[in-house]
Design goal:
mainly alpha
């Protein structure tokens, strides 16, 4: 799994746990819904840390709490 895929999986997991949709997350985080859906799109490869921080603010999480999950603990090495 790539870092981008792990971020998308974590966002969907957090939305599910809170009973909200990605569109609602966008609204409470001050980003456009298209930004969130772009981040969730498997064809897109870039992830902005600033966007992740805004989503964390909307979820009332720190970046440390966001990245402290199994999705990120089991990532493969990015340098080959």
């Amino acid at each position: 799994m790539s870092v981008k895929d792990a971020v998308a999986e974590r966002i969907l997991s957090l939305c599910d746990a809170r009973g909200i949709r990605p569109n609602e997350l966008a609204n409470i985080s001050g980003v456009t819904p298209s930004t969130v859906y772009s981040l969730l799109d498997a064809r897109r490869r870039d992830v902005s840390v600033i966007t992740v921080k805004k989503l964390c603010d909307g979820l009332e999480l720190t970046l440390g709490e966001f990245f402290s999950s199994e999705e990120f603990d089991n990532l493969e090495q990015e340098i080959y």
